[in-house]
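Module 6 notes. Inverse folding takes a fixed backbone as the condition and produces residue identities as the prediction. Think of it as a translation problem where the source language is geometry and the target language is the twenty amino acids. Below is one complete input and output pair. Work through it position by position during the lab.
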């Protein structure tokens, strides 16, 4: 069932474009209701505009329920109901239903709470590789305070915006002695592109076949939209996750968001690390 997510975004966008074309045809047809056709055009433009905005104006997080989009869609449905045209009404209903599926099903990760990631506990052993194929184990990441971010891949605009935020805070994290590891199951060539783009001394790591994500209970089955499978990405990816460990490898913070559009800000990481470092000095 979860693998249906791989197909959902392409189908949702295709449906919106179909609705836009139908609205244009109805607007040109003088026998149709102009108001209803224009409302359908606006309803179809909402998801198209939203997804375009994620790429054109990168942001790492959104309102979990996308209330502005929901409100606009409901208001735009009124002219469709007042001036009934079954073709327009059916298209508007299909787009609206898809929008609710996106917000309340697709965006929800429905993740179980992994017992292996608990504050005060040491993470289980797992193995990664860097972009050159060298092995990196969880033990190697645990020799200093670490910030580990599991991201979905270069194709995810919210992930890219989150990495950009953390990159901007790099100097502050480095001055605190924090190692930053960016972890994804995407192919090594995509990770190399990312490391060259940001030019910060992060550990850019690859989770081959999602083995580490499996160990930690972070796999999102079918989380990669089908269109990106053509670029070599795997259908399954990791749920966006932040794990912070101290110099002994024990977890001091974990963000296990259940909505891929809701993520913590870098200020949160820095404040928690600073609090932990201050507590260590006081002891």
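Target side of the pair, the amino acids:
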């Amino acid at each position: 069932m979860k693998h249906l997510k791989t197909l959902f975004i392409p189908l949702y966008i295709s449906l919106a474009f179909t609705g836009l074309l139908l609205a244009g045809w109805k607007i040109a047809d003088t026998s149709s209701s102009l108001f209803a056709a224009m409302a359908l055009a606006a309803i179809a433009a909402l998801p198209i505009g939203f997804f375009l905005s994620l790429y054109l104006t990168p942001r790492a997080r959104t309102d979990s329920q996308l209330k502005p989009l929901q409100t606009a869609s409901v208001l735009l449905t009124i002219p469709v109901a007042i001036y009934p045209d079954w073709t327009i009404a059916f298209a508007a209903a299909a787009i609206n239903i898809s929008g609710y599926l996106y917000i309340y099903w697709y965006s929800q990760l429905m993740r179980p709470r992994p017992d292996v990631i608990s504050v005060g506990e040491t993470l289980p052993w797992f193995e990664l590789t860097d972009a050159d194929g060298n092995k990196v184990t969880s033990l190697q990441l645990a020799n200093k305070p670490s910030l580990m971010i599991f991201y979905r891949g270069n194709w995810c605009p919210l992930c890219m915006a989150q990495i950009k935020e953390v990159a901007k805070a790099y100097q502050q994290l480095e001055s605190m002695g924090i190692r930053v590891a960016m972890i994804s199951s995407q192919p090594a060539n995509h990770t190399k592109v990312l490391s060259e783009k940001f030019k910060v001394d992060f550990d850019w790591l690859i989770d081959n076949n999602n083995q580490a994500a499996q160990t930690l209970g972070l796999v999102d089955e079918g989380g990669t939209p089908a269109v990106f499978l053509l670029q070599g990405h795997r259908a399954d990816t990791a749920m966006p996750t932040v794990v912070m460990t101290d110099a002994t490898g024990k977890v001091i913070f974990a963000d296990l968001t259940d909505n891929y559009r809701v993520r913590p800000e870098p200020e949160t990481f820095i404040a928690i690390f600073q609090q932990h470092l201050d507590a260590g000095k006081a002891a």
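Reference fact for the lab report: The mean pLDDT is 91.
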